[in-house]
Amino acid sequence: MPGADKKLKTLYDKVFEDHIVNEQDDGTILLYIDRHLVHEVTSPQAFEGLSNAGRKVRRPDCTLATVDHNIPTAPRKNFKNVETFVEEADSRLQCMTLEENVKNFGLTYFGLDDDRQGIVHVIGPEQGFTLPGTTVVCGDSHTSTHGAFGSLAFGIGTSEVEHVLATQTLLTKRSKNMRVQVDGELHPGVTSKDVVLHIIGVIGTAGGTGCVIEFCGSVIRSLTMEARMSMCNMSIEGGARAGMVAPDEVTFEYLKGRPLAPKYDSAEWKKAVNYWTSLRSDEGAKYDIDVFLDGKDILPTVSWGTSPQDVLPITGVVPSPDDFEDENRKLSCKRALEYMGLTSGTPLKDIELDKVFIGSCTNSRLEDLRAAAKVVEGKKIAANIKRAMVVPGSGLIKKQAEAEGLDKIFTDAGFEWREAGCSMCLGMNPDILSPRERCASTSNRNFEGRQGALGRTHLMAPAMAAAAAIVGKLTDVRDFAQATSSSRKAAPISIQPEIEELDTESDLERILDVPEDNEPHANTKSSGTSAGLPKFTTLKGIAAPMNRANVDTDAIIPKQFLKTIKRTGLGTALFHQFRYNSDNGSELPDFVLNQEPYRNAKILVVSGPNFGCGSSREHAPWALLDFGIKCVIAPSFADIFFNNTFKNGMLPIPISDEAALQKITAEAAAGKEIEVDLVNQVIRDADGNTIAPFEVDEFRKHCLVNGLDDIGLTLQMESKIRVFETKRSIETPWLDGSGYLKKHRRGNGGATKVEAAPVPKTNRGDVKNEPLEW
Ligand SMILES: CC(C)[C@H](C(=O)O)[C@@H](O)C(=O)O
Ligand code: SF4
């Protein structure tokens, strides 16, 4: 039947469509957000914006905050408060600012004295805050992790954090559907980390741009939830906005008994499971991009270069620029080998290491630690390993690992056993590499300077990192007799998807209980007016040429500058490691922005694709803006960066026509001005001749030209949001997260008071009796 296919939906289509509050003619959609995770790095400016506008957090019950990036992983035995515990002043200020904000805005917060503190992407699932079919956001690119539950989970910038806090919605557009199907079976010793590294090697770091990836196939089905999280976590390294796995019995089994999941076996649980079971792609649904892989082609995989697409099986040798056809890849390979201090043709297994890091939101869960412990048990780390550390993803994981004796196995082998946090994944805390140190790391990014200025990162699975620590070199874990693939799931349990009607009196009472006073969190100043942004109509100025591909946001603004609680003042740090000598801080004369006339550039013209990939840090556009650059022209952009620029009144212009881009680059290289005319959508040379037309999204153009800010516009939709929320309360009542909040309310003169302190109770009762092992 012609046209019949149009009704067939993918998992992504279903979850997305279930959250549409409003759709404009140009396809701009107001999307409802069910779950918002907040951490200290990307929230201060958002809360500040909220305070300045006199706005409240619309749904504190759907918001969960913790500290993870800046905190030391040192023992907390003597912990009193963050003020005395966090030594580094900027880090301390960021942590204290979050604590201030959660108090002022009444949010649930897991602080350093709470076992439930940990990396946002670990604690959300652990608590059952992340649920199938939900929309989940966080000012953090690895929010994609939560897609393992069949939720639509993606990272956002700080302006969007403010938008969600104020409105519980986001303005967005539909993404494309991409299917990555891995069939067959995995070889022993191959884990989901190897699978995802392999996938990124195949599709490239821009392969998923504009897409949501659905991971499917027999290999994905056979993975545990923790293994699926590791995969979805790195969707962002494949350029995708999100990764998803359809929920199944493995998912439901994982969620049983989680504090914030519906109570197991209750009517609500059954209703939820019934809905969750419907969340799978329709047979025959069409995907915009399809990738089919066979599990047997995947070997234990490691990265050799400075991009997550630079991966090879551990049996391989360091490549040469000549191995690549694409000019950008040749150039990147050459740079990467220099940076990594590697010679083409060297067997990967001959590469000697200095440090080993087992942790991060990719691989710091219990199964990861168990797999690594199995490898190191009874052995000692090699003499050349200066430091090997294990950093559990949360306090609860740490406790459980200790109960299983894993800490002892690690410390006996010579590893450090640390407290939960992001740690050496990006080194915003004291855990960093020294210049030129080489590290085997279970994290997700191997960008230049990621783990410390001039540090060299090799990404791999936990058991591989453990084996590397013992041997002192990159190692094939399969050479270790005890190595096993611990990420294979246990036998599936069966859950009866029996439906029970929920509309009993007590259910309704509970539904009506949120929000308790019926409108405590609606914004009072919702007139739709806002401070607004400077208008962008035309921009004429010097354009700086940059011949690089895959410029990541770590390169645009490195982690040490993310500790600010302001949006301004980052211009001097822009492209820090390209711009300054990291040994003595002097300017590197070869870098374009250190040359005349480019010190005054207003436009950046990039020749390589995928500009702004990696982290969601809005500090990247803030740094460009502070330097004076308001417009970036490139063949393509990473999704989050692209969004973030618009929110700051900047214009990113994708120019895919190579000839046109070359002409623009030539003008830039000649040191001439160019003119970007947004109203007429053309780029002109200094004499006013048209060089190239460009496309821009209608709604975004409208906002830029008129200097409109999104929050004000969205607040005009208040009644539609309320209607959506009412429907949500009736259809999916388990999403009204009253569990923590209710227990916090104080009868303080009738006012609703929520304490920003460790939460004493959960849905299941007193936290003291909370079982740690799930
Ligand atoms: C700090 C945050 C913005 C960042 C991200 O978005 O990924 C961080 O988690 C990272 O891994 O670089
Ligand atoms: S990628 Fe690293 S820094 Fe970013 S959230 Fe995960 S653990 Fe933290």
Automatic annotation (TrEMBL):
Molecular function via GO? 3-isopropylmalate dehydratase activity; 4 iron, 4 sulfur cluster binding; metal ion binding
| Catalytic activity reported | (2R,3S)-3-isopropylmalate = (2S)-2-isopropylmalate
Q: Which CDD domains match?
A: IPMI, IPMI_Swivel
> What EC number(s) are associated with this protein in UniProt?
4.2.1.33
The Aconitase/3-isopropylmalate dehydratase large subunit alpha/beta/alpha domain is annotated at 13-472
A single GO cellular-component term from the record reads: 3-isopropylmalate dehydratase complex
Q: Which GO terms describe its biological process?
A: L-leucine biosynthetic process
Where composition is biased (Basic and acidic residues), the residues are: 763-774
Keywords linked to the UniProt accession: 4Fe-4S, Amino-acid biosynthesis, Branched-chain amino acid biosynthesis, Iron, Iron-sulfur, Leucine biosynthesis, Lyase, Metal-binding
Q: In which pathway does it act?
A: Amino-acid biosynthesis; L-leucine biosynthesis; L-leucine from 3-methyl-2-oxobutanoate: step 2/4
Question: Region Disordered: start and end of each range?
Answer: 486-506, 745-774
- Cofactor (UniProt): [4Fe-4S] cluster
Q: Where is the Aconitase A/isopropylmalate dehydratase small subunit swivel domain positioned along the sequence? A: 534-657
One matching Pfam family is Aconitase
Keyword Lyase on entry: yes
Q: Does the keyword Cytoplasm apply?
A: no
Family note: Belongs to the aconitase/IPM isomerase family.
> Which PANTHER family has this protein been placed in?
3-ISOPROPYLMALATE DEHYDRATASE (PTHR43822:SF9), HOMOACONITASE, MITOCHONDRIAL-RELATED (PTHR43822)
Task performed by this protein? Catalyzes the isomerization between 2-isopropylmalate and 3-isopropylmalate, via the formation of 2-isopropylmaleate.
The protein's name in its UniProt record: 3-isopropylmalate dehydratase
Task: Please name the source species.
Answer: Talaromyces rugulosus
